[in-house]
Amino acid sequence: MTMHSIDRRGFLRDAGLATAALALPALGRGQDSYPNKPVKLNVGFSAGGLTDVLARLTATSLGDKLGQPVIIENKTGAAGNLATEFVTKAPADGYNLLFSSVGQIVVSPHTYTDMRVNPQTDLSHISMIGEGDLILTVNTQVPAQTIQEFIAFVKKSPGQLFFGDSGAGGNLHLYMEYFNLLAGLKMTGVHYRGTAQLMPDFLGNQVQMSLNAYPAIEAYIQQGKLRALMVVGRQREAKLPNVPTCAEVGLKPLEVCTNWFGLHAPKALPEPIRQKLRLALVEALKTEAMQTGLALQSIRPVGDTPAAFTARIASDYEAFAKVARSANIRVG
């Protein structure tokens, strides 16, 4: 009886190994042939905005490198959170990806009360695509020529001046509150449904200050309607050579407040597919089309490793959690 039992166990073990051996090549073939159909790149913002423009640029070059079309799917709403949630729940086969902006991944979890997923832990992070700095500007009716003069100006009228941003609970809202905390200011935030809606009030001095990507405000600066006081980032903007960085004016912690964009997939994405996507993205970032397109938006190409991108997300996630708590930013 004992002998029979041992033989039976041995048979089942050998049969199981044989079945696994047969299954492994099939799994490998599936990953080796990826992608064998179009890939969807989910974008949480509407067509025409910066995130959408960069996503479409990326989709074209990435599709060329993958050998399959990469199709944009705009899933708008809740500051990009609907697209984030969709991808976390999609099959982890590499055919549904997320093109993110920084706010979706490391800001919204701390500012939105109804977040049902955690982007930091519920996604597979493939690579940061690009990163850009932001420009702190005032309208020209504000009597301040430097950031130091502006800080002094605000301190003379605590609670009476306003900053404008492109959405409550978004990254620009949080970044402005961080500036307030670091500089010891009391300014009131006014939240708009995008930069286009902000501009009339900003130019008309209903709000005195805003923080934006350079391309969104370049024309207004050149026309003398807005005045750039500080670059929020690690290096000066080439087109604004006389405007100092936040570190140069004693606000170095603001360096973390950049405008970055990334590529993500569902959490259980097989590692071979993740690496294939990352390598294809790195090659796409080398193309003239992407180099030129990113430069037009003042975005530096990155293309880092999954490990490096995941570490950056963890660092930003922790930093912005502290800001959201200190400034008591909760929406939704």
Summarize the structure.
Helices cover 47% and strands 19% of the residues. The chain contains 13 helices and 11 strands. α2 (50-66) packs antiparallel against α12 and α8 packs across α13 (306-327).
Task: Describe the model.
The protein is of the alpha/beta class. It has two domains: 34-132 and 260-327, Bordetella uptake gene, domain 1 (D-Maltodextrin-Binding Protein, domain 2); 134-256, Periplasmic binding protein-like II (D-Maltodextrin-Binding Protein, domain 2, 3-Layer(aba) Sandwich). It is built from 13 helices and eleven strands. The chain has helices spanning 2-32, 50-66, 81-88, 102-106, 108-111, 119-122, 147-155, 171-183, 195-203, 214-222, 271-285, 288-296, 306-327; strands at 39-43, 70-74, 96-101, 123-132, 134-139, 162-165, 188-191, 209-213, 226-232, 259-266, 300-301. The strands form two sheets. A six-stranded mixed β-sheet has the order 2-1-3-10-4-11, sandwiched between helices. Helix 8 crosses helix 13 (306-327). It starts with a helix and ends in a 5-residue tail after the last helix. Mean pLDDT is 91; it is low at 1-29.
Descriptors:
332 residues; alpha/beta; D-Maltodextrin-Binding Protein, domain 2; six-stranded mixed β-sheet; five-stranded mixed β-sheet; 13 helices; globular
